[in-house]
């Protein structure tokens, strides 16, 4: 394996003793032969020493109370939003129940049947998607999958337009 030069993050993790032992041994061996990486490490040491001499900043006296007040306000807002959502959902359920009672089974049974069939199709597609996506996302990192999808979608549209033009030119 070729040696990889230290960046600031790995150098800091090395100094803090946070690298796993095999990686630490590789870094030690690399440092013995690489002056540039020793320079990066020395810079991180100098920065740590300079920062350790600075006094720690103290928070304002009312910091804890202010944070707790913001948390409580946010919890009140979320609680109010949940109550409104529950009320809207309850009202919608009540309206649906009244309409179902007034219309009788002949009115809502076909719609319920179509909804069930659509739900079955959606569940089937979700299962197929999960069966395909799970091994891909397990094998690839999520960022790679998102970037690939982001690049593939415009390419697919472009290929579709080109194939339509080619088909039109051929006929």
List keywords for this structure.
171 residues, mainly alpha, 6 helices, 83% helix, flat
Discrete helix count:
6
Question: What is the radius of gyration computed over CA atoms, rounded to a whole number of angstroms?
Answer: 31 Å
Indicate the proportion of strand residues: under 5%
What oligomeric state do these chains adopt? single chain
In short:
The chain is an all-alpha fold and 171 residues long.
Describe the structure.
- This protein is mainly α.
- Among the domains are: 8-52, no CATH class; 70-103.
- The chain is built from 6 helices and no strands.
- It has helices at 8-15, 21-31, 35-52, 63-103, 105-139, 142-170.
- The chain is flat.
- The relative contact order is 0.04.
- The model has no long low-confidence stretch (mean pLDDT 84).
Secondary-structure map with pairings?
Blueprint: H1 8-15, H2 21-31, H3 35-52, H4 63-103, H5 105-139, H6 142-170
Helix pairs in contact: 1-3
């Amino acid at each position: 394996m070729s040696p990889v030069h230290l960046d600031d993050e790995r150098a800091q993790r090395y100094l803090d003793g946070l690298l796993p032992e095999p990686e630490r041994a590789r870094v030690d061996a690399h440092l013995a032969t690489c002056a540039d990486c020793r320079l990066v490490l020395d810079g991180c040491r100098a920065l740590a020493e300079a920062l350790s001499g600075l006094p720690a900043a103290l928070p304002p006296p009312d910091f804890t109370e202010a944070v707790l007040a913001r948390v409580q306000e946010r919890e009140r807002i979320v609680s109010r939003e949940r109550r409104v959502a529950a009320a809207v959902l309850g009202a919608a359920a009540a309206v649906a129940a009244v309409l179902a009672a007034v219309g009788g089974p002949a009115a809502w049974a076909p719609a319920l049947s179509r909804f069930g069939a659509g739900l079955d199709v959606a569940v089937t597609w979700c299962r197929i998607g999960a069966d395909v996506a799970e091994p891909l996302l397990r094998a690839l990192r999520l960022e790679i999958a998102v970037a690939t999808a982001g690049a593939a979608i415009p390419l697919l549209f472009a290929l579709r337009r080109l194939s339509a033009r080619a088909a039109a030119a051929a006929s």
